[in-house]
């Protein structure tokens, strides 16, 4: 059973994240599991500054996990229109927040659907994913280059898709070479894999623009 948490129990960073609606619960997938929707474009990374990990940890612990309760769940992460300097919290913040989840919650997470992954992110996670994240999370990662592939797992009526994500999907249909980094997007680089706050040197993976 979900537990109701008063907003006053969360700190300012988590409240800022809540107001952004970057992370919300949206219905069930085709197997009846809860769906956590993450809209990267909504994440207030610039406003949070160095408090991104704090906000993620608090918001997940105080709001999302109590609402999920003891159910199994999946994550749909929409990477469309993400820019490293504006709305990307950094791999370190994501890793830190995930690693602090209770072991039972990690076990109940069944899949992470990564929608609209840039070429740089695919290469980055293929190269460093196993070192940055536990095998339990890495093996649950599923790339979804188009929204149509998401619908094989989640009914359209169960997941609200923001306009920015739909528009990016339409743009990819018109300009398929964007999937391979050969043609730049209208917003240029989605984020630079070489600068995802890790110690790894990835200068060769800088975005094509």
TrEMBL record:
Origin superkingdom: Eukaryota
- Which is an annotated Pfam family here? CRAL_TRIO_2
Which SUPFAM superfamilies does UniProt cross-reference here?
Answer: CRAL/TRIO domain
Q: Which Gene3D superfamilies match?
A: CRAL-TRIO lipid binding domain
Q: Which residues cross the membrane?
A: none
* Occurrences of domain CRAL-TRIO (ranges): 16-168
Q: Which SMART domains match?
A: SEC14
Stored PANTHER family: OS01G0948300 PROTEIN (PTHR48411)
Q: What is this protein called?
A: SEC14 cytosolic factor family protein / phosphoglyceride transfer family protein
Q: Which organism is it from?
A: Zea mays
Classification from the root reads: Eukaryota, Viridiplantae, Streptophyta, Embryophyta, Tracheophyta
């Amino acid at each position: 059973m979900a537990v109701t948490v008063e907003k006053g129990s969360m700190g300012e960073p988590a409240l800022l994240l809540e107001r952004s609606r970057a992370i919300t619960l949206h219905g069930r997938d085709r197997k009846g599991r809860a769906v956590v929707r993450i809209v990267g474009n909504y994440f207030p990374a610039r406003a949070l500054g160095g408090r991104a990990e704090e906000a993620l940890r608090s918001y997940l612990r105080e709001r999302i996990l109590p609402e999920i309760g003891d159910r199994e769940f999946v994550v749909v992460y929409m990477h469309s229109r993400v820019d490293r300097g504006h709305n990307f919290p950094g791999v370190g913040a994501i890793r830190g927040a995930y690693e602090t989840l209770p072991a039972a919650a990690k076990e109940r997470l069944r899949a992470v659907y990564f929608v609209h992954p840039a070429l740089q992110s695919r290469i980055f996670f293929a190269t460093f994913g196993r070192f940055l994240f536990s095998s339990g999370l890495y093996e649950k990662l599923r790339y979804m280059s188009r929204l149509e592939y998401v619908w094989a797992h989640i009914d359209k009526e169960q997941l609200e898709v923001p306009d920015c994500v739909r528009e990016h999907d339409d743009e990819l249909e018109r300009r398929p070479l964007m999937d391979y980094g050969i043609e730049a997007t209208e917003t240029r680089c989605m984020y630079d894999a070489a600068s995802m706050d890790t110690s790894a040197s990835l200068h060769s993976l800088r975005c094509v623009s």
